[in-house]
Amino acid sequence: MLSALDLARRLEAGALKPAGAVDLCAEAIAAREAEVGAFAALDIAGARRRAENSAGASSARPLRGLPVGVKDIFDTADFPTEYGSKIYAGHRPAADCSVVSLLHRAGGLVLGKTVTTEFAYLQPAKTRNPHNLEHTPGGSSSGSAAAVAAGMIPIAMGTQTGGSVIRPAAYCGVAGFKPSYRLLPTVGIKSFSWSLDTVGLFAAGVADVAFATAAISGRDLRVDRAPPETPTIILVRNHLRDEASKEMRNAVETAARAAESAGARIEEHEQPDIVREAHRVQPVIMDYEAFRALAYEYDNHRASIGPMLRELLDKAAQLTSEEYDAARRVTKQARHAVNEMLEGKFILTPSAPGAAPRGLSSTGSAIFNRLWTSMGTPCVNVPGLLDDSNLPLGVQVAGRFGRDRATLQAALFLENVIARAK
What we know:
The protein is built from 15 helices and eleven strands. By secondary structure, it is α/β, with parallel strands linked by helices. A hairpin with a 5-residue loop joins strand 10 (about 380-385) and strand 11 (about 390-400).
C-alpha cells in the first residue's frame, strides 16, 4: 500500500514531485483496477496535468498534491456523480461538495470517484476484495477501501451511516476512521440519513489516516509526531459477543492482551441497558430518514431503484413519527451513558463479525458498527491481524465524542503493539 505520510514527506523533501505521486497510483491502477473495480470514474491524465500545473501551490499545503479517491456520492464538478444509481447515469453536478473543496484547499488532487453501493445502501456493486477477489470488500464505501488496499491511492474518502467506513476498512485490511459526527461537513453529499451520515477516510495505517483527516479538517489530529500515550481499554460484555466468529473473538482478545503487555490497562464492563436499546432502534432512525431523504427517487423513479433499497423504503414508509421521535430520545440518553463510560477510556470491539465473507451478493453485516455511528463517537479500524486463510481481521477502537485525536492515539498504540506481537 501507499503510505500518505511517507509520500507527503518525500514531496516535502523534493524527492518526489506531485506528478510522480500520480504516476505511482497510475501504475498500480493499471495493474489491478481491471480485477478489483474500485473506481466509478478516473482521470489520471487530468490529475497529472493538474499536478504539474499546481506543483508550487500544492507544496505549501499539507497534502502537497497527494492523489485522493472520493466516494461517488460526493458531488464533484470535474467528475460525474452517479450515486451508484442508474437514475443518475451521467449526472454532472455544478459544484463540488464542501468536503471536496476542503480537500482541494488542503492540496489534495482528486484522481477519481470510487465505487459506492446504490445510494450508499446494501446492494453490492462491482468492486472486489483485493486480498481475495471471491470475497466482498464490504460496503457502502467499497471502492474507497479497496483502492487503498490495492495500493492504487494513498487516501480515499467515504461515508458511514451504519458501518460503511469501518467494515470495508476491516475487510480490506486498511485503516478506516469515522470521526465524531459533523467533524467533516456533509453538505453536497447525497444524504441517506441526516442524523447518522458521517464523512470518513481510509489510508494504509492509523497515522496516515490521522494525517489526512487533519489536513482536510484543519484540526490538530496528527499522531505521528510523538509516541502515543498508553490507553485504558474497555472490553464490553454484551449480547453481541456471539455474533462474532471464533477467529474474531480471538483477534480482539489477542489485541487486548498485547496492549496489556505493553502497559495498557484493560477493564471489562457490562453494557448499560439504554445503550443496548439504542443499538436496537438505530434502524428506526436510519430507515425513517432514508424514506424522506430519497423521497424524489422513490416517488418518481421507484422502478429504477434496486430491490434491496426498494424493499427497505417500502417498509420505512410505515414508520411513524412517534416511533422515530422515541428512537431519537433513546439515542440521546444513550449518548450521555456512553460519554460517561468513555471518559478517559476507549472501547475495543470487533470491526465486523469476522473476515470478509466469500461471495459478492452481500456487503456483510454492520452489527458491530451501527451503535457507534448513532452515538456519534470517533471510531478507528485498526488493521494488522489475519485469519487462518490470510484475510484481514479488523478490530475497532471507539472513543468519547469529540476526542478524535485521543482515539486515533489509542488506535495507533494498538496498531503498534499488534505489529510487535507478530
